[in-house]
Structures are given as structure tokens and as C-alpha cells.
UniProtKB/TrEMBL annotation, chain A:
This is Response regulator. Residues 145-210 form the HTH luxR-type domain. The modification 4-aspartylphosphate is found at residue 54. Keywords: DNA-binding, Phosphoprotein, Transcription, Transcription regulation. The keyword Metal-binding does not apply. PROSITE patterns: HTH_LUXR_1, HTH_LUXR_2, RESPONSE_REGULATORY. One of its GO terms (molecular function) is DNA binding. Pfam families: GerE, Response_reg. GO terms for biological process: phosphorelay signal transduction system; regulation of DNA-templated transcription.
Automatic annotation (TrEMBL), chain B:
Keywords: Kinase, Membrane, Transferase, Transmembrane, Transmembrane helix, Two-component regulatory system. The chain crosses the membrane at residues 36-59, 80-98, 104-121, 142-162, 174-196. Pfam families: HATPase_c (PF02518), PspC (PF04024). The keyword Kinase applies. This is Histidine kinase. GO terms for biological process: phosphorelay signal transduction system. Residues 301-390 form the Histidine kinase/HSP90-like ATPase domain. One of its GO terms (molecular function) is kinase activity. Residues 10-66 form the Phage shock protein PspC N-terminal domain.
Length: 212, 392
């Protein structure tokens, strides 16, 4: 397997070196950045395969980096990595264009796996993100504006449910009698819906959730 | 001298050197005239139907006091007496000659003049300069005031024409009323606006302070407390991990979870149960909840069964993490408790062991639900609990 070139963007130095030490041999860390400005510059110069992106940072946070880099037409892939569990952060960064969201409690092996997955163009959902998506897509009674984008298929729902239950992709494939590739396709399709659905409820749900 | 380098702000009433309230002095500074000129003007206007008093009072109300430290200096009583005597002499002269009744003609001029003066003193120098250059760009807040001021001046002029053309007295009275009401409105508008703005500012400030106090209290009560405990237990790695984890969980709940009553809502109750077992056994329990509903008898039984499943997973599986997933659907509630630990052979569990048979499966069935246990040695364990929701 070819090595994946990774840029770590996080405002905590201790955390950056911790991640660096934990990653497997298939990952090559080519640089670090500690705020929005330096991240945008480093991404432009180094052209990493995957950017590990912190959500909360000085100067606008991960969403600002996503907006500026993806807004300029770059094809760099982002994996969001955060301590935050807030729905608005999780949904916000995915809607901003990240290909996955994992929390910082993730183990080194799992993170390595997630980076490899993102570098191949797949999506990475943590159990919590899967839970948020199920909740968000289920919570509205309003009829979908665009049925193709605004609702999940039965199969996608099953896959998400298994992710939320703590299953790895391989275990999901076994459980549903499908291939790992098919699981990946379903998750990518959910990611696409999450990013492209113009249902306002998604963002509103995420914000309103805190205010109940 | 429109390009004076020293930007001077809105007209204020200086505290030192005032005769009555500092209005004339402030106006003089603003207009770059000698205060004596303005004081004389006020005295003269007072002789004419008391207009000076009205103008003075209006400017007094709407001109902010100059901010000054320490005790306010006393009025210049000597000057006040001088102006008073001057006024008496003029008034006496006017009374004798009968020139004091300026008639209706003076009133519209005076009202228009006062309106224009107030407009003038409300504006800051930059805006005044823009007015002077004639390039009045429409800024939403300024054009209303400008419009009203202009209207007042026009009405004043019409009033003057009407009076001098000796129109019917009733018509003049109407115009006069309109002028007064218009003037009042214009006078009150900026004052009310600033009052509302001030109130809003105070309110946000108070909310912010309350929020800050709450955060400080929380950090003090829980986070600092735990950090102290961690230092005291530094030798005991397991205890340190447990303390850190429980504090992390509490902080997360406080930051990210909607405030919920754990005695009433299923999602909150599941989180609480998981937290308690996590603390008791030192094994991390990840909880994901989708949807929520109110607790009832059946769901309490489901919770107890779920707690037993978590206890089993923590105690016997050897897995570092246990996943709990609770989902509320329209017709049923499902809870999954899963670990990636040792697993076991279900049929080998002795029939007198209460954990799985009684506390989980038996309890669910007694309450009209169902439980399914999936396990294999080396492949972890998953307990699935389902309870139908009562249709309302």
C-alpha cells in the first residue's frame, strides 16, 4: 500500500505530537499547522493527500479552512478530528466538506484506518456521527423537497444503525451479507446526501438540539 | 473653518464656567462664537414672548452634560445676576413701548429655528460636513431625522408666511399645532432610540455576566475539584483514569447535551445508567441515542435490563470499550449493548446464573418486551433489547 501524506492541523502542540506518534507506518506526516492561516498556506504548498482537521481553532476554526481551501477548487480530502460532541460542530464540518468525523478518543490503529479510507475517497463515520445523521433525517415531519437527497434508503439506514451500534465496516459487511466495498458505497452516499441536501432542517436541527 | 484638525464631538454642556446650565457656553463652543453673544441672544429672545426660555429649555434637555471628574464647580452667580438685570431692563423697556408682542409671526420662526438648531447639535461634525458639501448620502438612520428636520423648517416658513399674510386665525392655529407636534416627535425620536439601545446593551451585558458566573461556578465545583483529586491519587493509575473519564463525561454532558431530566426522558436515563456503570467498573461506555421519549413502566424495565447487560460486559468481557445504542422509533424502543470482548457460549451458562436469564431475558419478557443475546467465544457479545411502545 502506498504511503498516505498527511497534514495535521490542530492548535494544541501536545496533541499534534501525540497523533504523530500514534499513526501507523502507512501514514507519513508531512507537516503541521496550528491555525487557519498557516493551515491554508501549508495545504497550498504541500498538497497533502489527507488533512487531519481540528474543529475548534483560532481564526474561524475548521469550517473556515474548509471554506477557503475547498472554495478555491482544491481536491484535498479532510478528516475532522475533534473533542467536540456538539451536533452543530459535527454536522457543520461535514456540511462544510469534510469526508469524515472522528473524536480524539479514537485509537491510533483506528485513526490510521480512517485516514487510509479517506485517502481512497471513502467516508468515515463515527458511531456518534451516525447517530446524529439518523436523528436528523428522522426528526422532521416535513415532506422532503428532493426525495433523492432528502431521505435515506432502508439499506443506508441499516448501515448507519450498525455503525452507531459500534460495528466496524467489516463487521457490517458480514452482518448484512454484503461486501465491504458496498458498505463504503452506502456510507459515501449518506455523506453526499448530508452535504448536498438543502434541507434547512439539518443545520437547524443541529443548532436547536442544544436549546431544547 | 470646516477642516479643523481637532475633531470636536457632539455639543455638550460644560460644567465649569456655566451660568445656568452651560447651554449657551456649549453652543458657543460648537458654533465657535463668544458665549456672551449667545447669552445675550437668549436674553433678547426671552423678552420676545419668552422664546429664549423655550429654546434654552429644549437645548438643555437634549444636550448631554460634559463628563467631569470630582465636584461640579459652582455657577457663576455674578454673571447670572448681570444677565438677570439686563433682562429686567429690556423687559421693562419692552413693556413700556409695547414692543414685546411679536405676534404670530415670531413663533413659527422660533420653532423652525429651534428645530434646525437641535438637528445641528445632534449631528456629529463629520455628518455636518457632509451636509455642508451638499452630498447627503442616505444613511438609513440619518435620513429620517434629516427629513423631519427639513419638514419642520418648511412648516416654520409656511407658518411665517401664513401669519404675515394674515390668514384666518384658525388655519394658523392648525399649522401651529402641526409644527409643535412635529417638533415634539423629532425631539423625542433620537432620545427614545438611544434609550432603547442603552436598555438592550445593558440586558446583553447582564446575560453575559450571568453566563460567565455559571461557567465559573461549574469549573470550580467540578473541574477544579477533580483535578485536585487526581493529584492526590497520582499513584493510582486506574483511579486517575476513572476520575478523568468521569469528569470528561460530565463536562461533555454539560457542554453538548440538551438539559434533560434523567427521571423522565429515556435518552437521559440511558446516559445516566451508562455513566454510573462506567464509574463503577472503570470501563468506557460509549452511548449513542437516536430519538427520545418519556419513560414508562416497560421502559424502566428495559433500562434495568440494559444496566445488567452493561454490568456483564464491563465485568466479564475484558473489552476496553462497551458500545450502547438506544433508538426510539414510532412503535418500539430498541437498546443494543455490545462489546468486542471474549464472548461465551450461551448454552453453557448455568441455569442458576441470574444475570442473563433472569435479569435480562426474563425481565424483558415479563414486561412484554424481548431480549436477544448474540455471542460467540472470541467474537464479543451483543444484547438487543426491544420494547413495544404503547400507542396513544
Amino acid at each position: 500500500m502506498k504511503t498516505v501524506r498527511v497534514l495535521i492541523v490542530d492548535d494544541h502542540r501536545l496533541f499534534r505530537s501525540g497523533v504523530r506518534a500514534e499513526l501507523g507506518p502507512s501514514i507519513q506526516v508531512i507537516g503541521e499547522a496550528e491555525d487557519v492561516e498557516s493551515a491554508v498556506t501549508a495545504i497550498g504548498e504541500l498538497q497533502p493527500d489527507v488533512v487531519l482537521l481540528d474543529v475548534h481553532m483560532p481564526g474561524g476554526g475548521g469550517q473556515e479552512v474548509l471554506r477557503r481551501v475547498l472554495g478555491s477548487g482544491s481536491q484535498v480530502r479532510f478528516l475532522a478530528l475533534s473533542v467536540s460532541d456538539a451536533a452543530e460542530d459535527v454536522i457543520g464540518v461535514i456540511r462544510g466538506g469534510a469526508r469524515g468525523y472522528v473524536t480524539k478518543t479514537i485509537s491510533g490503529a483506528e485513526l490510521t484506518d480512517a485516514i487510509n479510507r479517506v485517502s481512497e475517497g471513502d467516508a468515515v463515520f463515527s458511531p456518534r456521527l451516525a447517530g446524529f445523521v439518523l436523528d436528523a433525517f428522522a426528526s422532521t415531519e416535513a415532506p422532503p423537497i428532493d426525495p433523492e437527497l432528502d431521505s435515506l434508503t432502508q439499506r443506508e439506514r441499516e448501515v448507519l444503525r450498525l455503525i452507531a451500534r459500534g460495528y466496524a465496516y467489516k463487521e457490517i459487511a458480514k452482518e448484512l451479507f454484503i461486501s465491504v466495498k458496498t458498505v463504503e458505497t452506502h456510507v459515501s452516499s449518506v455523506l453526499r446526501k448530508l452535504q448536498l441536501s438543502n434541507r434547512h432542517e439539518l443545520s437547524r436541527w443541529a443548532t436547536a438540539r442544544r436549546l431544547v | 473653518m470646516p477642516n479643523a484638525p481637532v475633531a470636536y464631538p457632539r455639543m455638550v454642556r460644560p460644567a465649569s464656567g456655566r451660568v445656568v446650565a452651560g447651554v449657551a457656553q456649549g453652543a458657543a463652543a460648537q458654533l465657535r462664537l463668544d458665549p456672551v453673544v449667545l447669552r445675550l441672544a437668549f436674553v433678547l429672545l426671552t423678552v420676545v414672548d419668552g422664546l429664549g426660555v423655550v429654546a434654552y429649555a429644549a437645548l438643555w434637555m437634549f444636550t448631554p452634560k460634559e463628563e467631569a471628574e470630582g465636584r461640579r464647580p459652582a455657577r457663576e452667580w455674578g454673571q447670572l445676576a448681570a444677565y438677570g438685570v439686563l433682562w429686567l431692563a429690556l423687559a421693562g423697556f419692552a413693556w413700556m413701548t409695547g414692543a414685546s408682542s411679536g405676534g404670530f409671526g415670531t413663533w413659527p420662526i422660533a420653532v423652525g429655528g429651534i428645530g434646525a438648531l437641535i438637528l445641528w447639535q445632534q449631528a456629529d461634525p463629520g455628518r455636518r460636513q457632509r451636509w455642508m458639501s451638499g452630498a447627503v448620502k442616505q444613511v438609513s438612520t440619518t435620513w429620517v431625522r434629516t427629513g423631519i428636520g427639513a419638514l419642520l423648517v418648511v412648516v416654520g416658513a409656511i407658518g411665517f408666511l401664513a401669519a404675515s399674510g394674515e390668514l384666518a386665525k384658525a388655519g394658523t392655529g392648525l399649522v401651529f399645532t402641526a409644527v409643535v407636534v412635529g417638533g415634539m416627535l423629532m425631539i423625542a425620536a433620537p432620545w427614545l432610540a438611544s434609550l432603547v439601545k442603552e436598555l438592550q446593551r445593558e440586558r446583553t451585558e447582564r446575560i453575559r455576566q450571568e453566563e460567565r458566573a455559571e461557567v465559573a461556578a461549574h469549573v470550580h465545583d467540578s473541574v477544579l475539584h477533580t483535578l485536585t483529586l487526581i493529584q492526590r491519587n497520582a499513584h493510582d493509575a486506574r483511579e486517575v483514569a476513572r476520575l478523568a473519564r468521569s469528569q470528561e463525561r460530565e463536562l461533555r454532558n454539560w457542554l453538548y447535551q440538551p438539559k434533560q431530566d434523567a427521571d423522565a426522558s429515556l435518552a437521559a436515563a440511558v446516559r445516566r445508567v451508562a455513566a454510573e456503570e462506567e464509574d463503577a467498573h472503570g470501563v468506557q461506555i460509549e452511548v449513542v441515542c437516536v430519538g427520545d421519549c418519556e419513560l414508562n413502566e416497560g421502559l424502566v424495565a428495559l433500562l434495568q435490563a440494559a444496566r445488567q447487560a452493561m454490568v456483564n460486559a464491563c465485568k466479564y468481557s475484558g473489552a476496553p470499550v462497551v458500545s450502547v445504542y438506544a433508538e426510539v422509533e414510532a412503535d418500539e424502543v430498541t437498546v443494543f449493548v455490545r462489546d468486542r470482548g471474549k464472548g461465551f457460549v450461551l448454552d453453557d451458562v448455568a441455569s442458576d446464573r441470574m444475570g442473563i436469564r433472569q435479569s435480562i431475558i426474563g425481565r424483558m419478557e415479563r414486561n412484554g418486551g424481548s431480549a436477544r443475546v448474540r455471542t460467540e467465544p472470541g467474537d464479543g457479545t451483543e444484547v438487543m433489547l426491544t420494547m413495544k411502545r404503547e400507542q396513544q
